Amino acid sequence: MLESIAAAPPDPILGLTEAFQKDARSEKINLTIGVYRDDTGQTPVLDCVKQAEQRLLAGETTKGYLGIDGLADFKRLATNLTLSELVSHDRVAAAQTPGGTGALKVAADFLAKSARGARIWCSTPTWPNHTAIFEAAGLQPQAYPYLGADRRSLDLTAMLDTVEREGRAGDFICLHACCHNPTGVDPTTEQWAEIAELTAQRGMLPVVDFAYHGFGDGLVEDRLGLAELVAQHEELLICSSYSKNFGLYGERVGALLAVCPSAQAASNVASCVKQVVRSNYSSPPRHGGAIVACVLADESLKALWERELAQMRGRIHSMRRRFVESMKETGCETDFSFLLDQRGMFSFSGLSPMQVDWLRNEKGVYIVGSGRINVAGITLENLDTLAAAISEALAS
Ligand code: LMR
What we know:
- By secondary structure, the protein is an alpha/beta fold.
- It has two domains: 11-45 and 311-395, Alpha-Beta Complex (Aspartate Aminotransferase, domain 1), CATH 3.90.1150.10; 65-297, 3-Layer(aba) Sandwich (Aspartate Aminotransferase, domain 2).
- It has 13 helices and eleven strands.
- It has helices spanning 14-22, 47-59, 72-83, 99-114, 128-137, 156-166, 189-201, 224-232, 263-278, 287-297, 299-329, 353-363, 383-395, and strands at 29-30, 92-97, 119-124, 140-145, 172-176, 205-210, 236-241, 254-259, 346-348, 365-366, 372-374.
- A seven-stranded mixed sheet has the order 2-8-7-6-5-3-4, sandwiched between helices. The chain has a two-stranded parallel sheet with strand order 1-10.
- The longest helix is centred in the C-terminal third of the chain and has 31 residues, at 299-329.
- The structure holds (2S)-2-hydroxybutanedioic acid (LMR).
- (2S)-2-hydroxybutanedioic acid binds at residues 13, 33-34, 127, 129, 181, 211.
């Protein structure tokens, strides 16, 4: 049987990372996968994480399995970080998951179990793994427009028209809480209020991807859209990642939070989520969740984390500015100042698939096929080379 299996295509994001690693050119630049890099191009371990790990190592008594839904402290603290006063916590069913992707997968399996074949609306464009995960679970991804014709700003009217015309009770809608992946284009708080109102009116259940909490404008600011959703929807799912904001990528730590209409509903949902997890990976890994819980539970570690997060956010903002300036200096005709309005790690550069291929083949500059650039991968060292290469790609 295995003889007849055809090869699958490489993943649109991770496949490029593999290709980058194989590339022998010393000047190569990787702006593909959403991983933060510091000024030296490294993905650092945060100090707060190192300190938490030292405490955990000293106090560790067991490597036993966690419960199916993870550490109780992690669930409580993650709920608090994400929702604090927005909703009474007894209405929230929480589960620690292997990364934000794990949270999305558990959410999708859970939804598909009670509503097989239901439709889930995703922005065009969206993170390619969204549709892959939803489809694999047995949901039917549908597309709503997101960007305007300039491919640089939100076309709220087009988005809401589609939701109004085609959305119906029982549909799910996937929304990015902040730092939209791949575009970096987020709705304003007022626009979020409109999205929340209309999706609630249509009886749609939001599935909120919250992978970049703290990478936009701050921990409180990045939650404003979610607050609008919670105000209008008595039920929704949130899939959080701690990969980026804690730099815990390989530790795989995330959370699924299901906001339910009542405490009883939350307890029922929690039991069903556990059933989904048990038949998938049984229980989450221990270490990453323990680190996050240790940091969030300790005032001084939490304050250190917030400072380190602000530093990462600040570096990305400053790289946006420097990139825009460097592009100007190359004499490039395209004005990239639209990047300054975008938030988070990513920007939609407007580069065509042909230009993206050319940059990879001729210059060793790796960008996702959609033209998405990981701004966090730009450093003072690679900035000029990158700007010159992009300028040449646009001119050719
Ligand atoms: C990305 O979009 O690059 C990140 O979310 C990492 C991933 O798994 O794709």
